[in-house]
Model the fold of this input.
Amino acid sequence: MNWSLDSLGIIHSCYQEKFAVPRQPGLAPSARATLELLPPYNQPECVEGLEDFSHLWLTFLFHQNLEQGWKPRVRPPRLGGNQKIGVFASRSTFRPNGLGLSVVKLESIELQQGVKLHLSGVDLVDGTPIVDIKPYLPWADSLPDATASWAPEPPPLLRVVFDARVEQQLAHHTEGVWLRQLITEVLAQDPRPAYQKNDPQRIYGVMLAGANVKFAFHQQNEQEVIVVLELG
Amino acid sequence: MNWSLDSLGIIHSCYQEKFAVPRQPGLAPSARATLELLPPYNQPECVEGLEDFSHLWLTFLFHQNLEQGWKPRVRPPRLGGNQKIGVFASRSTFRPNGLGLSVVKLESIELQQGVKLHLSGVDLVDGTPIVDIKPYLPWADSLPDATASWAPEPPPLLRVVFDARVEQQLAHHTEGVWLRQLITEVLAQDPRPAYQKNDPQRIYGVMLAGANVKFAFHQQNEQEVIVVLELG
Done:
């Protein structure tokens, strides 16, 4: 059995790089993306009736990782990066066939030139190829009582504070309110890889919605907080 | 972009043919299947820790439909088979890339010879090739408030009754209680294609868990019921 997948569309995302993309969808509800369908899938007929659904499943390729293959066991960040578990017991991006799965919110559909789906709550990096789109059916897909022993709830959040100069920049930014919220939601997830958590001097940078966001980890009242230092 | 998928495993299912397979998972909780992983994915390491999750996502290929391709619009059975909607607004099995997605219950894991996952609540026909396995994460995947306007709830169920002779056969069957329950759950979904709903004389047959089940649609007190006529 060998089956070839075609890219149905491509993601244009506020996540311009892989670093700091939340590890599941919905964790940063302010994250925006547009799914641009490609020919021959970009006919309005293909999405007729889709506006009746609030959420969609996207199946996609972890395109930045495909060349690196997979291993039978992985170290999920949720287990501190030390413990290994089976690749099929994880949502690791390094997996056989390299398929990802995310539920996203459908905000609107644009049919002027081809087909564009405007989405939110995504965890998809810019350029992600989409290989399937399905409506979310709550009576089939929503299992609130399903158990997931070592990942029973979303990861804990860190507090995010902004340097006074950054607050000023945001106040003058056309989409400052949204961008501030996006940065807060994304950084609160603690994007550091587990092996970097003991490096307090380090300054991190990430491209987010066109802004070069520089941040660091400080101790405040014995709690770790993220300080946004600069917006480039 | 063109990416080739490998089959990670194969489904051995109580659904021996496509006819009468429920249209979503979970609708027939008694449905059983075994997912047999294939080399090189059938190493116990690959599923280490999977037993901690109650439910799994399976991504699979609609292998019986792949040759028939897709059309921009489809007629979902839920809309009576007359109204057309976009293929991406449906879960139609005839779709670009031919990918299916089902959440299933993980009953147990067998590691004696290779790896076998025992599953229930499946909607997968025997022989289905599996291309991804992921744990279900309720805090990311369960959205009970998602809206799905024309399919807001499971399809209505028909009443299923058994001919006295069939009841006797089931009473002597080693797995009669389970088989009776399975037949009830499956037939209650009304497996007829929409265009056959006005053919009251027709006798249907389906192979289910090794039994050749013959059934028909009768009127009782102005309600349509399904009568199981024969078990071969």
Observations:
- The mean pLDDT of chain A is 94.
- Residues 109 and 140 of chain A are 24 Å apart (CA to CA).
- Chain A is about 10% helix and 35% strand.
- Chain A touches chain B through 71 residues (CB under 8 Å).
